[in-house]
């Protein structure tokens, strides 16, 4: 075993014997996300570097401590990208990106982070190194376990390496701005969603609706004609979408608690107190609000979705939507299987594990 992995394994085994908890941490850019931050910090940044990158096969593999910016820079040189546009939030690591499972504006067209994970190598709560999945989409052995790590917030194990499917950058892009009220914007997004238009991102705020089109130059030009609106200058558009991806857009500067509501895209305006941004064709509703948690969660539940207290607010209400008993039982069983002594990121997702 690699000396660094042996050291990690020894730390894990000693923590398990002593009953100590470990707080897995890379760049620390998402410390705000989730419930409690408990335990002795186990810094994963030392295990870094791109292991393999084959642009012709559209696959990149890197270690957990590798900076996300480094991975994306290497891919950019070859005209490729992580199409789910994971937020960097400053200095994120690849392992942290997997653990958080967050995706950016292009998720509505390309899919989520978990859809691009081909394989992972992890260290479980026994200090053992396990490998799941592979480096091709058709390799399904352990594939679901690889996806399971996406969004697990480090509660199941240390993500030592991850392999991702890469995609080429689009040949052409254009961003359009339309003045539409919330209800009309939702209707239009769903209408356009049913047509063969190359829409790869959308964002509505009180200032109007922005649409990003990506693909072949001819397809983008034709779609611009069909959708209409004002075309935004390319550099301004890039800054706009980066601002949403990295949450530096003025919308995210509000001091009120930030909720993340996942609902069916056709859900009409939720009429909740506070300011909203609508992404992903209507399926993602960001809400800055001082409304109580029950009000927000009941509104999301009535729509057939769920709500997460993403940033700020009183975490005593629970950051994540409470699970049904059956789902909670599955979560507990998975935790016991991968981390039998409960040492990894205890309480980060739910207070009882």
Write the layout of secondary structure elements.
Layout: H1 3-18, E1 22-25, E2 40-43, E3 50-54, E4 59-63, H2 68-77, E5 80-81, H3 94-100, H4 107-110, H5 113-116, E6 117-123, E7 129-133, H6 143-148, E8 158-165, E9 167-168, E10 172-178, H7 182-193, E11 199-205, E12 208-215, H8 217-227, E13 230-232, H9 234-245, E14 258-262, E15 275-279, E16 284-288, H10 293-302, E17 306-311, H11 325-338
Parallel strand pairs: 1-2
Antiparallel strand pairs: 3-4, 4-8, 5-9, 6-7, 6-8, 10-12, 10-13, 11-12, 11-15, 14-16, 14-17, 15-16
Strand composition percent: 15-25%
**Share of residues in helices:** 25-40%
CATH topology of the largest domain: Uridine Diphospho-n-acetylenolpyruvylglucosamine Reductase, domain 3
Quick check: average pLDDT? 95
**Whole-angstrom Rg:** 21 Å
CATH-defined architecture of the largest domain: 2-Layer Sandwich
Query: Which secondary-structure class do the elements indicate?
Result: alpha+beta
Strand order of the largest sheet: 13-10-12-11-15-16-14-17
Q: Which term fits the overall shape? A: globular
Question: What is the element string, with H for helices and E for strands?
Answer: HEEEEHEHHHEEHEEEHEEHEHEEEHEH
Give the low-confidence spans. Answer: 137-143
Number of helices: 11
